[in-house]
């Protein structure tokens, strides 16, 4: 790579980000959005102290030999204070993070969370707390019998690679990059990775980022970049420092960054919702299909378990969802089975009205129709969840639409059934 001396800070940062994207693409088969996220994150590691949060990068795949470790190796030659490891002791992990604020590049995370309890719980605690400024973990120090406790800082950039999913609380703090095995043609087209050679190739990029971080610290700390509407609150928090860097770089990087954020962390890019949220959405579909205000438990289970594309037919060790598991998943929403009269029988079941509040709070809002002023006005209210993604239009729901009676009274001409 030719070393080009640039004097304008924005041009230097922009060129460095472009260079990181090119370097990553040379040795890793990865999407454009993921490459842009990695470039911004690499720059962030040099200035993460200026941010309130530091996003984690999760590199995952379904099977081995999919390039996860290679992503860590490429990152190692670019990021600030890299610490590439697959296993450390529970005593070393918090102490080193507190002392050095390294960029932790943790490989084989699936094995780490299955290892001895002390290490896995220490790792979980550090990852749960270390994404936000001020995060800490408390550790027992000293020699018996004079033990005492000390708080160790856990705030530092982290990249985590492993097969499968991370614990939910950690995955929620991550930008997830999913890897696949290279095809034969892709493998032939890529140069062989030799760390010493790649490190020398990447050194100008790393130096540019070091120089930029020294000059632009004050520019980042007060920035409040615009956040794409497709990001929820947590995704907005983890992307904010990266979007601030993209805005500082200028050129087409603000657009690249926001496109990557939506693709990787927007409603379509993030992993499936929590199982209970998925259940709320699928129960809504069942109520619509049955066109009833009440459904007996067994009929609801039959409807949920019938669709092989959904998880309910194999939700617990190969067994389908049953009434006990259904009640347990719905209990946190204060939804419980009730007695329903069906003909001359009394059966356990659920009423549509039991779900009104949960649907409004946990399902996404209906996007406004730009060609319909009434639609835009009503869909902007928080009581307008998008219950049915498959219908392609508004679905009348006499129970849920009662929650909009105030809107109807305020605007009888413009109001429409929103569900």
For the largest beta-sheet, the strand count, sense and barrel status come to: 5 strands, parallel
CATH superfamily of the largest domain: P-loop containing nucleotide triphosphate hydrolases
> What is the SS-derived class?
alpha/beta
In DSSP terms, counting alpha (H) and pi (I) runs of 4 or more, how many helices? 17
Q: How many β-strands, per DSSP?
A: 10
Could you say what the CATH architecture of the largest domain is? 3-Layer(aba) Sandwich
Overall shape: globular
Helical residues, percent: 40-55%
Write down the CATH class of the largest domain.
Alpha Beta
- Give the neighbour order of strands across the main sheet: 2-3-6-1-7
Mean pLDDT: 81
The number of domains is 3
Distance between the termini: 57 Å
- What pattern of helices and strands is seen along the backbone? HHEHEHEHHEEEHEHHHHHEHHEEHHH
The fraction of residues in strands falls at: 5-15%
CATH topology of the largest domain: Rossmann fold
pLDDT < 50 runs, ≥5 residues: 1-8, 268-272, 366-419
Rounded radius of gyration (Å): 25 Å
Verbal overview:
It is a single chain. The chain is of the alpha/beta class and 419 residues long. The protein folds into 3 domains: 9-265, P-loop containing nucleotide triphosphate hydrolases (Rossmann fold, 3-Layer(aba) Sandwich); 275-358; 364-410, no CATH class. It has 17 helices and 10 strands. The chain has helices spanning 9-27, 32-45, 68-76, 92-100, 109-112, 117-129, 168-171, 184-189, 195-221, 233-249, 253-265, 275-290, 297-306, 323-330, 356-362, 373-379, 405-410; strands spanning 56-61, 82-85, 103-106, 136-141, 148-153, 158-163, 174-179, 294-296, 338-342, 345-351. The strands form 3 sheets. It has a 5-stranded parallel β-sheet. A 3-stranded antiparallel β-sheet has the order 8-10-9. Helix 1 (9-27) packs antiparallel against helix 9. The longest helix has 27 residues, at 195-221. 34% of the residues are buried.
């Amino acid at each position: 790579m030719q070393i080009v001396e640039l004097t304008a800070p924005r041009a230097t940062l922009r060129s460095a980000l472009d260079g990181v994207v090119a370097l990553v693409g040379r040795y890793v088969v990865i999407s454009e959005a993921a490459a842009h996220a990695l470039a911004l994150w690499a720059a962030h590691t040099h200035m993460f102290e200026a941010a309130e949060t530091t996003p984690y990068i999760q590199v995952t795949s379904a099977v081995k030999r999919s390039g996860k470790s290679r992503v860590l190796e490429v990152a190692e030659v670019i990021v600030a204070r890299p610490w590439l490891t697959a296993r450390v002791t529970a005593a070393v992990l918090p102490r080193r993070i507190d002392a050095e604020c390294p960029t932790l590049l943790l490989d084989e995370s699936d094995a780490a969370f299955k290892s001895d309890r002390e290490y896995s719980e220490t790792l979980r605690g550090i990852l749960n707390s270390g994404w936000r400024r001020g995060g800490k973990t408390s550790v027992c120090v000293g020699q018996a019998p004079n033990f005492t406790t000390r708080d160790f800082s856990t705030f530092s950039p982290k990249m985590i690679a492993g097969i499968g999913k991370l614990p939910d609380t950690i995955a929620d703090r991550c930008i997830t990059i999913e890897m696949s095995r290279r095809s034969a043609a892709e493998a032939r087209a890529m140069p062989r990775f030799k760390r010493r050679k790649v490190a020398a190739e990447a050194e100008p990029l790393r130096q540019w980022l070091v120089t930029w971080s020294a000059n632009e610290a004050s520019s980042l700390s007060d920035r409040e970049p615009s956040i794409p509407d497709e990001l929820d609150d947590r995704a907005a928090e983890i992307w904010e420092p990266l979007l601030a860097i993209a805005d500082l770089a200028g050129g087409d990087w603000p657009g690249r960054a926001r496109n990557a954020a939506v693709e990787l962390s927007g409603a379509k890019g993030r992993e499936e919702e929590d199982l209970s949220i998925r259940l709320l959405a699928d129960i809504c579909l069942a109520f619509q299909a049955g066109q009833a205000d009440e459904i007996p438990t067994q009929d609801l289970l039959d409807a949920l378990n019938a669709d092989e594309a959904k998880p309910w037919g194999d939700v617990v060790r190969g067994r389908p969802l049953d009434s006990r598991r259904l009640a347990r998943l719905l209990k946190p929403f204060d939804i419980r089975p009730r007695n329903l009269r069906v003909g001359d029988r009394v059966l356990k079941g659920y009423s549509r009205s039991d779900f009104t509040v949960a649907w409004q709070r946990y399902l996404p809002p209906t996007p406004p129709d730009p060609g319909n002023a009434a639609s835009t006005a009503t869909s902007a209210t928080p009581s307008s969840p998008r219950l049915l993604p498959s219908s392609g239009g508004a679905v009348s729901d006499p129970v849920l639409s009662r929650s909009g009676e105030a809107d109807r009274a305020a605007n009888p001409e413009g109001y429409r059934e929103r569900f």
